[in-house]
Each structure stands twice: as C-alpha cells, then as structure tokens.
Design brief:
This protein has 274 residues and is α+β, with helices and mostly antiparallel strands. Helices cover 37% and strands 16% of the residues. The protein has nine helices and seven strands. Strand 5 and strand 6 form a beta hairpin. Helix 3 packs antiparallel against helix 4 and helix 8 crosses helix 9. It starts with a helix and ends in a 12-residue tail after the last helix. The N terminus is likely disordered.
Length: 274
C-alpha cells in the first residue's frame, strides 16, 4: 500500500532494483522501518473474540448462542447468479451445520493512538509522516487479525491444531476455514456488525465503536467471522434479485427500502423509489 500511496509501484523486493523508482522505494522502505519502530513503542493494539455455538437456519441464516444463552440471528444472503458449471448457489450459512453441535467465531481488533499521531504530523505540515503512520497502522491491525486467526485455528478453537504454514502460505489462504467480514463480497450488509458488537461487547471490551454508517473507530480496525468448515471458501455474492431482498427484509422485520439501502452494492435491479 505504501508503494501505491507514494506512486512508487512495483512488487517487494524487486522494486528496489527498478531503474526508475528503485532509489525512492529504498528510501520509502527505510523510512517505514524507522516509523514502524516508533509505532510499536507508542501504539496500543487490542482485540476481542469469541467462538459461539451456532447452527444454520431457514437455508440462509445462522443462529448464534451468546455467552448468556441468548440466541441471536445473523442474517445472510445467497448467490442468485450462476457462478460455475454446476447449479450451485452459495451462501455463508452453507458452511454451518443445521444441528446444534457446530460453532462460528467472531472477532474485532483495533490499533489505538495512530489518529492522534498522524494528526500531530499533519499539523506540523509533515503530510508524508502522517500518511505513513496511517498506512502502517492499517497494516499492523491486519497483521493482528492474521495472527489472532492463526491462534484461533491452531490453539484457541483448535480445529486445525496440526497446521504448519509459512507466512506466504497463510497470505495465500492455504489454511482451513475463512474469515469473512461485513462488507466483503459474500457479506455486503454492514449491519451484521450490530450483532457482532452485542455478542462480543466490543465497545466495552476494547473501546472500538461503530459510527452511524457502520465505520469502525478508530479507523485502523478489523472485524469478521471465523468459519471452520474444511470446504468453506471466499466467494462473491454477485447481484441479487428483488425476491431475495423482500425475503431478507421480512426476516429482519424491516422495510424493503431499508434492506435495499443496506444492500445497495449488490442489487440486481433498480431499487424502490423513496
């Protein structure tokens, strides 16, 4: 990301030998290493997670039982456009058993302090350092999410305790299970975060808040689900029809318009007029 933001485009580490931008890339990398040392000392990372009893319900949804025994429904969607030669229309609930012996995990993690640090640099007209702080904080929270997922798989949940993957293999998603997030192509409705925040008590646990538009504060924050099924994979929901949106709205007991606003990016038709 740093390469792109500085208009130094190329792959690491080959870019260091590029005749045009190699020198600038090496300088950027050195500056980033120096800044990273500062951030590791000054910033605070926090995470919260849970693995809950879960079962799929009504074909498309997942019902999760919280620590207090209360059941919460996670509303999901299903592909309606054929994406393979087989007549398979995938939904996230397909990877959760309809019986009560399955589980689904959730997590949220944040890096605190980067906003104030970046603002301080910008107020001193050091836009370069401010941008670097923001970019590196984004990378740190992604690294935190990856590290936490590793321990979920191999130790905490332990559904793949024998896993031994290199960093490159993990980045290539060679591990068992998936970590989809609200806003991903398979989970376009950010309102799922409300359920996650309630089940994990995210605001109280680590201080990460949701805005009215479901952005996370502080900005370097990541959240998502943990799905353990060995056949689970990341998929693109694609456009969905009015019939599924109406059914989705009815299950949530909201208006069709409210559902359409939440699913604007995947509507396969012109939405209802206000």
């Amino acid at each position: 990301k740093q390469w792109y933001q500085r208009r130094v485009r190329g792959s690491y580490p080959k870019i260091f030998n590029d005749k045009t931008v190699g020198e600038e890339a090496r300088k950027l990398f050195a500056d980033a290493q120096d800044m990273l040392e500062v951030l590791v000392r000054e910033l605070q990372g926090s995470a919260v997670f849970g693995v809950f009893p879960a079962r799929s319900a009504d074909d498309d949804d997942v019902i999760v039982t919280g620590d207090d025994g209360t059941e919460r429904r996670c509303y999901m969607l299903r592909q309606q456009v054929k994406s393979s030669k087989e007549d398979v229309y995938v939904g996230t609930a397909d990877f959760i058993s309809p019986h009560r012996d399955d589980h689904m995990g959730m997590f949220a993690c944040s890096v605190f302090g980067s906003v104030a640090m970046a603002t301080k640099h910008e107020e001193q007209d050091d836009v370069y350092s401010g941008l670097m702080v923001k970019s590196l904080a984004d990378r740190l929270v992604e690294a935190m999410a990856e590290h936490l997922h590793l321990h979920i798989r191999t130790d905490i949940w332990g559904y793949d305790s024998a896993e031994h993957l290199s960093a490159d293999e993990m980045h290539s998603v060679k591990y068992q299970g998936t970590r989809p997030a609200p806003g991903y192509p398979s989970l376009p409705d950010h309102r799922l975060k409300d359920t996650m925040w309630d089940l994990l008590d995210v605001k109280q646990s680590i201080g990460c808040k949701l805005t009215d538009s479901y952005a996370m504060e502080p900005p370097p924050s990541v959240c998502g689900l943990y799905i353990a099924h060995p056949d689970s994979f990341y998929f693109n929901l694609g456009p969905i029809g009015r019939d599924q949106v109406v059914h989705y709205a009815n299950r949530q007991e909201v208006t069709q318009l409210a559902a359409e606003e939440a699913l604007e990016t995947v509507l396969g038709y012109e939405p209802t007029e206000n």
